[in-house]
Amino acid sequence: MSYLVSILYIVAFGMFIYGLMGLTGPKTAVRGNYIAAVGMLIAVVAVLIDIRDSSNWILIVAGLVVGVVLGVPPALRTKMTAMPQLVALFNGVGGGTVALIAWAEFLNSKGFTEVDSVPSAPFIVGSLFAAIIGSVSFWGSLVAFAKLQELLNKNFEKKVVAAAKAFQLANMILAVVSIGIAIYIGINANPTHEPTSALWIGGLLVSAGIMGLFVVLPIGGADMPVVISLLNALTGLSAAAAGLALNNQAMIVAGMIVGASGSILTNLMAKAMNRSIPAIIFGSFGGGDDSGAAGMSASGGAVKATSAADAAIQMAYANQVIVVPGYGLAVAQAQHAVKEMASLLEERGVEVKYAIHPVAGRMPGHMNVLLAEADVEYDAMKEMDDINGEFGRTDVTVVIGANDVTNPAARLDSSSPIYGMPILNVDQSRSVIVLKRSMSSGYAGIDNPLFTAAQTSMLFGDAKKMVGEVTEELKAL
User: Fold this and answer.
1) Torsion angle of alpha carbons 85, 91, 93, 98, nearest 10°?
2) Of residues 12, 94, 69, the one with CA closest to residue 45
3) Phi-psi category of 411—alpha, beta or left, where left has phi over 0 and alpha has psi -120 to 50?
4) Catalytic hit among 50, 290, 385, 404
5) Count of other CB atoms within 10 angstroms of residue 224
6) Which segments of 118-205 are extended strands (E)?
7) Of 38-42, 64-68, 103-107, 419-423, where does mean pLDDT reach its minimum?
């Protein structure tokens, strides 16, 4: 029976790896998800086969049913605009599960003193590491969810960001406390010692949990995509540690895959923002949008408003139009309207491309998923490095709800907090049309001089509605 379980585990994590390979391209991403899901099903079957106690088997099946009931409805009903929040929440649940596993193993082994009569170093170290990292990931992910869902009061967020240094000091103290408790538990994990009180593992989970809260609370909204990726990596590492403690090959491999891929993605996104990961964790910027009056930039510069009719004329007689999607497009659910507008332009012989910044939206690949939902061709979606050279020969660039990733201050103003961050060189286009509800700043809370540039016109209003009006004007030409 053990051979069958081992074979099933090998098949399962083989499918995890193959499924992850599918996620490297939009055309194979859905298939990759299905393959990985089947791999997880096989891993669950292997666990059920390996369990000989029928009462445990019943508990696991009951847990699966509860998980399906709680997990499937949000996954089906959540709009694409709220997908980052859902990812953060699901990721947090994974970290919390690992922390609970560590707690249960501590209680089951009476303070790690009854692990086959002799404490196993991998079991003890893996469990304690999983307890700390899993708890940090769970509570940190809940804060990320609350920030993305805008459940936190804006004034409270600003006060927290302003007190970032105090939080950093608190986190250092909490880290020392957590590590100290873990060392104490490890030293006493010996059959010759009295079992360590359960209060110690509870204290470890609490201190690590508060640290998770304090780490993410001061981080500004502009850094949230990187934070989600980092928390995802931490959850993977904690799962791998729990797998090491439980001697579960599937958990070890799956956790390491998630941890490694999440770490690589976090590093790539940090580079895309020209910021180090420590700078994001300890010195982030951006506390959310501040409303501004239409027709006036945050710095007081004048802007030029345009109409749907004028915008349609500009685009209709262009050779090339580049669409730059941002979170505003997601909020307005304007992707289908944009696709319809682009189709009309293409019928008139206008080449339409989409410029995707690595950190546009609220999570990695957010804009790609939105556009793919509207059946935009994958080949038309261009990454920043591939499209930046084309703005100089583009007649019209249409910016829809993108602020910080198009801000030329990152290239021109050395005093700007985002100076050095790679951006889409929208300001090099012959003409720029920006769709926004108002002159509010982006999620980083920084003014964008693009909006007052000579070649820029502002089309104010709901993105979906305004794109629809432009489309109707195109039909009338």
Assistant:
1) -160
2) 12
3) alpha
4) 404
5) 24
6) none
7) 419-423
d(CA 205, CA 203): 5
Residue 222: pLDDT band by 50, 70, 90 thresholds?
A: low
- 């996104």: which residue's tokens? 269
Spell out the domain ranges in the chain: 1-77, 80-282, 308-476
Cα separation, 475 vs 477, in Å, equals: 6
SS3 assignment, position 458: strand
6-32 pLDDT tens trace: 899 889 988 988 998 888 776 788 899
Report the alpha-carbon angle 126-128-129, nearest 5: 65
Give the per-residue pLDDT at 348: 93
Question: 3-class DSSP state for residue 144?
Answer: helix
In contact, 348 and 210? CB cutoff 8 Å: no
Verify whether residue 50 is a known catalytic residue.
no
Of all residues in the chain, the percent with pLDDT exceeding 90 is 40
Fold that domain 308-476 belongs to in CATH: Rossmann fold (3.40.50)
User: Residue 113: helix, strand or coil by DSSP?
Assistant: coil
Q: What is the pTM of this model?
A: 0.78
Q: Which residue(s) pair with 456 in the sheet?
A: 432
